[in-house]
């Protein structure tokens, strides 16, 4: 971490802990507004801050006689097992309120905040994983592999694999399930249940979206919704969608070649119109792109992106489609499309 980044993280830490001066708050706001990557960095560690603050405050309320130094040292030992190069700590305060605030602030200074979030929510009988503005690869005890998308959560009981294989998901994840005919793999997500023996598929069920979606890459998946008393059997290449408002569960052929782009970072557009391109980028990059201009029907693009940043993608589209756009407070607004 370079000197400038250290300075920014110190500003973020002091701001979220309520210790920044008016001038420092102004400086931080200006840095966040400079580019989308800055805003994403700030939002990521702010979420880590919120989670860590809630965790330690909860621990303190449950254990009035909690040994603060012991809890702090245990936390650091867990962090150092996983990230030895990117951790910078703050000196604990003796005042309990200040101490918990300082711990939360110290969390912000860990670059790989995904681990930190996992630590805070995993101290119970279940194993839980939660992401913020990051994705995470997870290996389960049965050998199955899961890629967890941004702002998602996965949990399973401590006896997973012994008599059953059940996980609970919120958000989006791609599953590669090890085959075990004696123990079907079950995913509980919102009102639905997904049951498989061994296959690979993507599940998307963010709470704030109307659709719950399953796209099967290999094998067969049973997609059931108890509330609607319906189920469908999905095979490779199928897409199952449950619409929460209408309670409709349908099965179609998947036509979205970019359904796994959030994981692979490979995006393919074939004669795609600008609005569908924007929709895809918002989903893949968790971006906030809007169109505030008349878009000609001829405004289509054929291009492939592989492991490129959102900024690089927008630069290509800007040249290809003669776009004009502005970036402010994390929002990207396309104001003109010459095409």
Provide an overview of this structure.
The protein is of the alpha+beta class and 339 residues long. The chain folds into three domains: 3-121, no CATH class; 127-253, Jelly Rolls; 261-337, Phage tail protein beta-alpha-beta fold (3-Layer(bab) Sandwich), CATH 3.55.50. It is 35% helix and 32% strand. The protein contains nine helices and 18 strands. It is globular and about 60 Å long. It starts with a helix and ends with a strand. The relative contact order is 0.07.
Task: Please name the defining characteristics of this protein.
single chain, 339 residues, alpha+beta, Jelly Rolls, Phage tail protein beta-alpha-beta fold, 3 domains, 13-stranded mixed β-sheet, 9 helices, globular
Protein topology:
Elements: H1 3-16, H2 22-34, H3 36-62, H4 68-82, H5 96-108, H6 113-121, E1 127-130, E2 136-139, E3 145-148, E4 153-156, E5 165-176, E6 185-189, E7 192-196, E8 200-205, E9 211-218, E10 220-225, E11 230-235, E12 238-243, E13 248-253, H7 261-264, E14 266-273, H8 274-285, E15 289-291, E16 300-306, H9 310-321, E17 323-328, E18 331-337
Parallel strand pairs: 5-6, 15-18
Antiparallel strand pairs: 1-4, 2-3, 3-5, 4-5, 5-8, 6-7, 7-10, 8-9, 9-12, 10-11, 12-13, 14-16, 17-18
